[in-house]
């Protein structure tokens, strides 16, 4: 069993910042990849950022590069997403995702087996 618990999220005005965190627990040796997806109404879920838990390899979708930063804390089995200069188009439900086997592909091709329940991010103009 693998469980992902997210925290953070909320509502901000355009240009503001939020920080999301996700902790993974369960009966496994270690997470291989952790990251974040998002989904807004009427759109498909998309990968936002992915972090290798074995090294410092990271990958982002183009629309968040330079604004979002993903980071890891292996001791706490946690991954965080610092989101700066948020824009209304970033409004979505954000989901933590994880894999405990394999390798970390580019975020656009990642199909993780585990997701959290999601946390809402709302950015107003």
Account of the protein in words:
The protein starts with a strand and ends with a strand. Strands 2, 4, 5, 6, 9, 10 and 11 form a 7-stranded mixed β-sheet that branches. A 4-stranded antiparallel β-sheet has the order 1-3-8-7, with no helix packed on it. The model has no long low-confidence stretch (mean pLDDT 95). It is mainly β and 125 residues long. It contains no helices and 11 strands. It has strands at 2-8, 10-13, 18-26, 33-39, 46-52, 58-60, 68-73, 78-83, 92-99, 114-115, 119-124. A hairpin with a 5-residue loop joins β5 and β6. Helix content is 0%, strand content 52%.
Give a quick rundown of the structure.
With 125 residues, the chain is mainly β.
Distance between the termini: 40 Å
Q: Which overall shape is indicated by the principal axes computed on the Cα atoms? A: globular
Give the assembly state of these chains. single chain
List the uncertain runs: none
Mean pLDDT: 95
Helix content: under 10%
H/E element order: EEEEEEEEEEE
DSSP helical segment count: 0
Main beta sheet: strand number and arrangement?
A: 7 strands, mixed
Indicate the structural class. mainly beta
Radius of gyration: 14 Å
Strand percentage lies at over 45%
Q: Report the count of strand segments.
A: 11
